[in-house]
Amino acid sequence: AGLGEFRIRDLNDEINKLLREKGHWEFRIKELGGPDYARIGPKMLDHEGKEVPGNRGYKYFGAAKDLPGVRELFEKEPVPPPRKTRAELMKSIDAEYYGYRDEEDGILEPLEQEHEKKVIAEAVEKWKMEREARLARGEEEEEEDIYAVNDDESDEEGGREKGEEGQQKFIAHVPVPSQQEIEEALVRRKKMELLQKYASETLMAQSQEAKTLLGL
């Protein structure tokens, strides 16, 4: 450790260089038919070094493991907190999560009422200023009473008339069938259903042809 940072780094680089050269010779010996020293050879020197996770091959020996910037690489990262499942997240979701209980504390409503009064006062003040400006220009017109009822309005638009005693009499603008016409239509519909249910196709064709001839 007393050699200094730069000397320690140089020595560590030299050791790694010799280890790589040793590995190349072991591979060449195996290639020539000799023993596989990478598998059966001593590992004492390799065990003294320590690899940085994610940096395969390069090792740090002795004081090199305590160099600035290297020590942090060997520190284990804190285990991340367990991730909650969807079911666990749904347990904490209630009416308060969606904002339905914002008014229960009695704080929001007074603030809203105060803001509402302020907005109304500003709108009224703006209307008064615009009205005074129109009066100054002589552009003020009589305001129309939107609630006034005009007696001359056509009763046909509302589809009603007043009877002799003042009662409202509604006028239908579309033809309304009478009770007899409704009964006849129901009878015809019932006949058609029975014909479709029991009559053959030939009889149906003859019946349709007869109706066509009779103009029905």
Give an account of the 3D structure:
- Helices cover about 55% and strands about 5% of the residues.
- It is mainly alpha-helical and about 220 residues long.
- Strand 3 and strand 4 (about 170) form a beta hairpin.
- The radius of gyration is 50 Å and the shape is elongated.
- Pfam families: Isy1.
- It is found in: Nucleus.
Topology pattern, helix = H, strand = E: HHHEEHHHHEEHH
**How many extended strands?**
4
Distance between the termini: 118 Å
Q: Tell me the strand percentage band.
A: under 5%
Organism: Probosciger aterrimus (Palm cockatoo)
Main location: nucleus
GO biological process, one term: generation of catalytic spliceosome for second transesterification step
Biased composition (Acidic residues): 139-156
